[in-house]
Write a structure and sequence with these properties.
about 30% helix; 24 strands; eight-stranded mixed β-sheet; disordered N terminus; Nucleotidyltransferase, domain 5; Rossmann fold; disordered C terminus; seven-stranded mixed β-sheet
């Protein structure tokens, strides 16, 4: 009698809170945690292990970029680890086909939350929102209406996210105010309430939320935690690493203001500047960042491209020159290259070197007001009042809905830094885009016909601006008709 082949079962490693999340049963289940605590992996594992034969599960990431770089690859990786991956189809949209635990077949369909209306029309058995707090609530509202399922029963919604304070919609999904004031911790436990900020809250009916801190994940290194912790203030670390609902009143820009603002391209008719925020030195740990910003005749602001790196002097100069040349080719030499000049003779010499290197292009130096560049909070050096003040005009435009981004690999990191400012150690991307926007605003009030000399050095006018050989303009001049 031939030996029977037994299919070998595979397992994924989980820690206790992940196991509780996988076993939780409610119409809406959430995983709220610090970064690195396994949000995406936990959500992906739940979808793959709980799926039944014939089901289709809708998986949504905030942007297509995040979908392509994080959610989809991780779902494929977990499916392979479980030994259930069958096929991945990428066109017309990503679909992952896998074997279910009951021996059948199921599908996971992927899309981004960039355009919530595109979600309409599907019919799904469950919903997985990866990094839910990065999306507008409209995504959840529309997607939940698609949970009709093949069995005529409404499927569950799974939300994985880092908390964004009590003002975030993800908080409202899981909590409501409790009209009680417990005497002590034991009383609070009996009543099922929790103090968050100054008030007491209780879970909303039909929801289960599992919360975890970054350090609770036994699969990450201590070095990762310490490195990330060193970039954050105490309050920001409580949100990003402890997974607490902290009301960060000091943050200038809310992530929801940037929802739905990705575009495929910027209008050709616009004034453009590439603003270079230079690192103090190669060994400083800081970044050099060049941001291409444009303002249309309708006063719409577009962030078109971000180039960023920790480069040696030689590599940095090569990146600046090659990027400026690419800008010139694309926009017929109309992009103004602006170099920030740091205080002191070293900053002046560095700016002059950059200007000589970019000779033949519209190139300027910019000397923004240099107040308090840094502040110390909880032992960490964070952006100071000068940088915060510089970013305020741009923040106001973002809040008003006037800023758009061209899709690119840089989007996610750029948004994270912008919405974490000024509670994050690094702010080169914020400095670059806010200074570029302010530079364009200054150029609008300059006399469009006024071309002369700067400190005795002649300037060369063109229809696009001013090309400067050795000395940049403190206040750039632009011509009408750009």
């Amino acid at each position: 009698m031939p030996a029977t082949k037994t299919k070998r079962r595979r397992f994924v490693a989980l820690y206790e809170k992940q196991r509780r999340f996988l076993e939780a049963d409610a119409p809406i289940v959430g995983w709220c945690s610090g970064i690195g605590a396994g949000k995406s992996r936990t959500g992906a594992t739940r979808i793959l292990l709980r799926a039944k034969d014939g089901e289709n599960h809708l998986c949504i990431s905030p942007t297509y970029n995040m979908l392509k770089k994080a959610t989809l690859p991780l779902m494929i990786k977990v499916a392979k680890e479980l030994g259930i991956l069958k096929k991945v189809v990428m066109s017309p949209f990503p679909i992952l086909r896998f074997t279910t635990q009951d021996g059948g077949d199921a599908e996971a369909t992927f899309c981004s939350g960039d355009h919530p209306d595109d979600i309409r029309g599907s019919n799904n058995d469950s919903l997985f929102l990866d990094e839910a707090s990065f999306m507008p609530k409209q995504v959840l509202d529309i997607a939940m209406g698609r949970l009709r399922g093949i069995r005529g029963q409404m499927g569950s919604s799974v939300l994985c996210f880092t908390p964004r304070g009590r003002s975030s919609w993800t908080f409202d999904v899981f909590y409501e105010k409790a009209n009680v004031a417990p005497r002590d911790d034991d009383d609070a436990k009996q009543l099922g309430v929790e103090k968050i900020g100054p008030a007491w809250y209780k879970p909303r009916p039909g929801t289960i939320l599992i919360r975890a801190a970054t350090w609770e994940n036994p699969f990450i290194s201590e070095e990762f935690y310490k490195t990330v912790r060193g970039q954050y203030s105490e309050q920001f670390a409580a949100q990003e690493l402890e997974g607490d609902f902290v009301d960060l009143v000091g943050l200038l820009i809310k992530r929801e203001w940037l929802a739905g603002k990705l575009r495929d391209a910027a209008p050709r008719e616009a004034r453009r500047v590439r603003y270079w925020d230079l690192a103090a030195s190669e060994m400083s740990g800081c970044y050099t960042c060049g941001t291409l910003v444009s303002v249309t005749p309708q006063n719409q602001i577009f962030v078109e491209d971000v180039v960023r790196g920790q480069w040696s002097t030689l590599s940095r100069n090569y990146m600046i020159e090659s990027t400026a040349q690419a800008d010139a080719r694309k926009y017929n030499n109309e992009v103004s290259q602006v170099i920030e000049q740091e205080p002191g003779s070293g900053g002046k010499e560095q700016a002059q070197q950059m200007i000589r290197m970019l000779s033949g292009m519209p190139v300027f130096r910019d000397m923004p007001s240099h107040g308090q560049a840094t502040r110390t909070q909880d032992g960490e050096k964070l952006p100071g009042n000068a940088k915060i003040t510089r970013a305020q005009p741009l923040a106001a435009q973002i809040e008003a809905g006037n800023l758009y981004m061209v899709r690119g690999e840089w989007n996610d990191e750029w948004i994270s830094e912008l919405t974490g400012f000024p509670e994050m150690k690094y702010c080169d991307q914020v400095d670059s885009v806010s200074a570029g926007f302010n530079f364009l605003q200054k150029s609008m009030v300059a006399d469009p016909g006024e071309i002369g000399t700067v400190r005795g050095v002649s300037t060369v006018p063109s229809k696009y601006g001013v090309t400067v050989a050795d000395v940049g303009l403190d206040l750039p001049t632009f011509f009408k008709g750009r």
